[in-house]
């Protein structure tokens, strides 16, 4: 389906697609769907050719899957493979797209803003730059649960002022769920203080402290690669991470992608924007169901669906076609 029909089809729907970020990967992802739909392997072959190494092998064997430079292109490719399966089956074209962190690139490819080949090259580089910005073991991330956003920010400011390193809010995922990132000692100090405040703190198994000021050197280098990449305005509106707004020009889009490396992911505001636009159905287009589960907690979202298996794709396809009045 070309960009123009996508754009027209997207207008008459109450569905939005969301694309997950790093952490949703799992060994063997999309294996079942690949047996049913040749387009899955074709999509991985297309992306692998652009990069010069076998993404499907990494996805199925797990070799290198925990290394950021490989995780990011594998996840992006998996999301686009699912997007293509959805369209092939006649699924509803969503009115809005959004992606969590890395997932923003999946959303932009789905919306025709950049090619899959260019996008996997970008995120492969993004992963390398992020990894090299902070030596292994010196950075950390943690999820803080059960505290108000303002309290988490207060704890981060307090620890940063004590000289233990920097720590900041990295992802505002939902009410009462904020991910922090920064220097390992500072992150651990905030975790301890959060528990003292009756909150929960969970260390995340990541090798890079994303979406904090430690990533500024990576962002400066990444900006050059973005400038060299062909980007168009999306044919379906994409809500961006850093401001929960829809890009209205390409320069703004590039700027937001650069800032995304070292600024917080505004997912709570992004999902509020989605609800404000009258969206009632959410489809998570990628491995897993983390974003679908977050969406289920929202007051105006009637249903949220993951689509990473054949059964889940069919369930979502039929439920949304009925709900949207496309079939009786």
TrEMBL record:
Gene3D superfamilies the record matches: Malonyl-CoA ACP transacylase, ACP-binding, Malonyl-Coenzyme A Acyl Carrier Protein, domain 2
Enzyme Commission number, as recorded: 2.3.1.39
GO biological process entries: fatty acid biosynthetic process
Gene Ontology CC entries for this record: cytosol
Domain of life: Bacteria
Residue numbers annotated as active site: 101, 211
PANTHER family: MALONYL-COA-ACYL CARRIER PROTEIN TRANSACYLASE, MITOCHONDRIAL
Listed NCBIfam families: fabD
Similarity comment text for this entry: Belongs to the fabD family.
Protein name per the record: Malonyl CoA-acyl carrier protein transacylase
Species: Acinetobacter tibetensis
Gene: fabD
């Amino acid at each position: 389906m070309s960009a123009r029909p996508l754009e027209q089809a997207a207008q008459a729907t109450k569905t939005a697609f969301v694309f997950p970020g790093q952490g949703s990967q799992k060994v063997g992802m999309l294996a079942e769907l690949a047996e049913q739909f040749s387009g899955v392997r074709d999509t991985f072959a297309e992306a692998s050719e652009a990069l010069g190494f076998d993404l499907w092998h990494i996805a199925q064997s797990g070799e290198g899957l925990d290394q950021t430079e490989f995780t990011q292109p594998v996840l992006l490719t998996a999301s686009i493979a699912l997007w293509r399966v959805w369209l092939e089956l006649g699924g509803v074209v969503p009115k809005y797209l959004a992606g969590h962190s890395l997932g923003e690139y999946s959303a932009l490819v789905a919306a025709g803003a950049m090619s899959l080949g260019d996008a996997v090259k970008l995120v492969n580089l993004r992963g390398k730059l992020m990894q090299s910005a902070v030596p292994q073991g010196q950075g950390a991330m943690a999820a803080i649960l059960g505290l108000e956003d303002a309290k988490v920010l207060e704890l981060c400011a307090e620890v940063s002022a004590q000289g233990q390193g920097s720590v900041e809010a990295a992802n505002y995922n939902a009410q009462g769920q904020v991910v922090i990132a920064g220097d390992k000692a500072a992150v651990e100090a905030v975790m301890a203080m959060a528990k003292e405040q009756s909150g929960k703190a969970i260390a995340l198994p990541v090798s890079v402290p994303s979406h904090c000021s430690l990533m500024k050197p990576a962002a400066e280098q990444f900006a050059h690669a973005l400038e060299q990449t062909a980007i168009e305005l999306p044919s379906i509106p994409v809500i961006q991470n850093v401001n929960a707004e829809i890009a209205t020009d390409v320069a703004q889009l590039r700027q937001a992608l650069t800032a995304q490396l070292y600024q917080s992911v505004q997912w709570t505001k992004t999902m509020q924007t989605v609800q404000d636009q009258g969206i009632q159905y959410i489809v998570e287009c990628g491995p897993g169901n983390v974003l679908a589960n977050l969406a289920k907690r929202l007051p105006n979202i009637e249903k949220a669906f993951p689509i990473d298996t054949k059964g889940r794709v069919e369930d979502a396809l039929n439920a949304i076609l009925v709900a949207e009045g496309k079939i009786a």
